[in-house]
Amino acid sequence: xxxxxxxxxxxxxxxxxxxxxxxxxxxxxxxxxxxxxxxxxxxxxxxxxxxxxxxxxxx
Length: 59
Fold this sequence. Notes:
mainly alpha
Protein backbone atom coordinates (compact mmCIF):
# COMPACT_ATOMS: atom_id res chain seq x y z
CA UNK A 1 0.00 0.00 0.00
CA UNK A 2 1.28 3.47 -0.88
CA UNK A 3 2.00 5.87 1.97
CA UNK A 4 -0.63 8.57 2.57
CA UNK A 5 -0.27 11.49 0.20
CA UNK A 6 1.62 9.46 -2.40
CA UNK A 7 0.13 9.71 -5.87
CA UNK A 8 -0.76 6.35 -7.38
CA UNK A 9 -1.25 5.57 -11.04
CA UNK A 10 -4.69 4.22 -11.95
CA UNK A 11 -4.70 0.67 -13.33
CA UNK A 12 -5.83 1.84 -16.80
CA UNK A 13 -2.84 4.16 -17.09
CA UNK A 14 -0.54 1.35 -15.99
CA UNK A 15 -1.93 -0.95 -18.71
CA UNK A 16 -1.47 1.75 -21.35
CA UNK A 17 2.08 2.45 -20.20
CA UNK A 18 2.97 -1.25 -20.24
CA UNK A 19 1.48 -1.64 -23.75
CA UNK A 20 3.52 1.34 -24.97
CA UNK A 21 6.70 -0.11 -23.46
CA UNK A 22 5.99 -3.46 -25.13
CA UNK A 23 5.46 -1.80 -28.52
CA UNK A 24 8.67 0.22 -28.15
CA UNK A 25 10.52 -2.98 -27.36
CA UNK A 26 9.10 -4.65 -30.44
CA UNK A 27 10.20 -1.69 -32.58
CA UNK A 28 13.71 -1.87 -31.11
CA UNK A 29 13.93 -5.59 -31.85
CA UNK A 30 12.68 -5.05 -35.42
CA UNK A 31 15.11 -2.18 -35.96
CA UNK A 32 18.05 -4.22 -34.69
CA UNK A 33 17.14 -7.06 -37.07
CA UNK A 34 16.64 -4.77 -40.09
CA UNK A 35 19.10 -4.84 -42.96
CA UNK A 36 18.94 -1.14 -43.74
CA UNK A 37 19.43 2.00 -41.70
CA UNK A 38 15.75 2.53 -41.03
CA UNK A 39 12.49 0.65 -40.87
CA UNK A 40 10.04 1.46 -43.62
CA UNK A 41 6.68 2.91 -42.69
CA UNK A 42 5.09 -0.38 -43.80
CA UNK A 43 7.41 -2.39 -41.54
CA UNK A 44 6.67 -0.10 -38.59
CA UNK A 45 2.93 -0.57 -39.19
CA UNK A 46 3.48 -4.33 -39.34
CA UNK A 47 5.43 -4.37 -36.06
CA UNK A 48 2.83 -2.18 -34.36
CA UNK A 49 0.02 -4.33 -35.81
CA UNK A 50 -1.70 -1.26 -37.27
CA UNK A 51 -3.57 -3.19 -39.97
CA UNK A 52 -4.75 -5.82 -37.49
CA UNK A 53 -6.03 -3.13 -35.12
CA UNK A 54 -7.90 -1.41 -37.96
CA UNK A 55 -9.47 -4.72 -38.96
CA UNK A 56 -10.63 -5.34 -35.40
CA UNK A 57 -12.15 -1.87 -35.20
CA UNK A 58 -13.88 -2.31 -38.56
CA UNK A 59 -12.10 0.45 -40.44
